[in-house]
Every structure is written in structure tokens, then in C-alpha cells.
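Sequence, please.
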């Protein structure tokens, strides 16, 4: 079994919470942040299971395979 450290983003949109796995570009949603993360975990599990079944795990994006990752936020301003 391989364990991956993935990045999840959650934000409120139109009365629901949207969740997204940055590395895989997989998303889900829920009524609460906790539910959105749980739904995202399930979606990512299914995505990885399918990739393994299809023999595509080695073709997944580089950030998934990276040993060191750093996340932060930046602020930009538009005119």
C-alpha cells in the first residue's frame, strides 16, 4: 500500500462547501467543510483505485510523486 500526502482546498460557494485535491484535480462538495473533505477523500480513493486498475498510477502528475511539497497562499491585486 502506498500512502500519498495530498493537498485539499475547501471554500464556500453558493451555500455549499466545495473541496478540491490540487494534485489530482479531483473535486467534490458537501454541506459542511468536514463533509466536503470526507466526500473529497472518497472521490480521491476512487480515482486512485481506478488509476491502479487501469495501470496508470505511474502516469499520475509529478506533484503526486514528489517527496517534498510546500504550500502557501499568495495575495495579488487586480486593477
Amino acid at each position: 500500500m502506498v500512502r500519498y500526502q495530498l493537498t485539499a482546498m475547501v471554500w464556500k460557494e453558493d451555500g455549499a462547501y466545495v473541496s478540491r485535491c490540487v494534485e489530482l484535480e479531483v473535486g467534490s462538495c458537501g454541506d459542511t467543510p468536514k463533509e466536503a473533505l470526507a466526500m473529497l477523500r472518497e472521490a480521491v480513493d476512487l480515482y486512485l483505485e481506478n488509476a491502479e486498475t487501469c495501470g496508470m498510477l505511474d502516469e499520475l502528475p509529478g506533484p503526486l510523486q514528489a517527496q517534498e511539497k510546500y504550500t502557501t497562499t499568495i495575495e495579488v491585486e487586480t486593477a
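The mean pLDDT is 89.
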